[in-house]
Amino acid sequence: MDFFDKLWTIIEYLILGLVQGITEPIPISSSGHIVIFREIFGVETDGLTFEIFVNFASLLAILIIYRHDIIRLIKNGYLYLFKKEETAKSDFQFIIYLVVATIPVGIVGVLFGDAIGKALGQPVVVGYTLLITAVAIWMIRNLRGRKSDGDLSMKDAMIVGLAQCVAVTPGISRSGSTIVASMLVGMKQETALRFSFLLYIPVSLGTTILEVPDMVRSDAFQATLVPNIVAFIAAFIATYFALKWFMNIMAKGNLKYFSYYCVVVGLLVIFFL
């Protein structure tokens, strides 16, 4: 591979890293957009290694943004579990609900994740699933729930957890499915957003830990290390600013624009790819 081939590979990984980073936190499906961009530009990556790098980059950005919530939950979880401080009870329950909501997608991901990705990873499928995402977002565009962190129930956690399982399908947004479910069970927008992205942390971390050994043993690991690092940096920066922007969008209640976007992109993919 000559210099220009290597440079072009880095540019391709940079673009895909940006796509992953921008689309991960907003409800338009990062996996679906990666499929679309690969099809349009004929970009090929080493698959597993690329996915681990960019997903971990998005995870780090989300950890930084929600660091204060994470520290508070860990502290209060400890205080309630070992000190029995009643003031910390609601945060302890919030942790339990996050754990419960993680279980369904953990089971589905381990048992069927790869098979679903291979079977439904075609652009035309992504087109239709983007339309499904559009309908789901449209349904909750005007909802204003009343439930805060301390008002959640085990039933709410299970519903959101089951909704997250649907996002194993390319084109179904993980953040979209969990935010839609959270708001349908009556959460406030701020609570829905926080629950959705704190729920992303154990799922992404678990996936990364399970897949790192296979990544390191991959023949392509060393050959694509530099492009993957470039994709990692791009995804980290893009995720950070995209999530900050999306938090502002949620506060203003402008979710309908994501529904419009998914309809347009979905139809273009169905008819032209």
TrEMBL record:
Catalysed transformations (reactions): di-trans,octa-cis-undecaprenyl diphosphate + H2O = di-trans,octa-cis-undecaprenyl phosphate + phosphate + H(+)
Transmembrane residue ranges: 48-66, 94-113, 119-140, 192-210, 222-243, 255-272
Molecular function per GO: undecaprenyl-diphosphatase activity
UniProt keyword Transmembrane present: yes
E.C. numbers: 3.6.1.27
Domain of life of the source: Bacteria
Keyword Transmembrane: yes
Pfam families noted in UniProt: BacA (PF02673)
Gene Ontology biological-process annotations: cell wall organization; peptidoglycan biosynthetic process; regulation of cell shape; response to antibiotic
Topology of this chain in the membrane: Multi-pass membrane protein
GO cellular component, one term: plasma membrane
Keywords: Antibiotic resistance, Cell membrane, Cell shape, Cell wall biogenesis/degradation, Hydrolase, Membrane, Peptidoglycan synthesis, Transmembrane, Transmembrane helix
Subcellular location: Cell membrane
PANTHER family listed in its UniProt record: UNDECAPRENYL-DIPHOSPHATASE (PTHR30622:SF2)
Family indicated by similarity: Belongs to the UppP family.
Miscellaneous comment in the UniProt entry for this protein: Bacitracin is thought to be involved in the inhibition of peptidoglycan synthesis by sequestering undecaprenyl diphosphate, thereby reducing the pool of lipid carrier available.
Function statement: Catalyzes the dephosphorylation of undecaprenyl diphosphate (UPP). Confers resistance to bacitracin.
Protein name, per record: Undecaprenyl-diphosphatase
Annotated source species: Oceanobacillus bengalensis
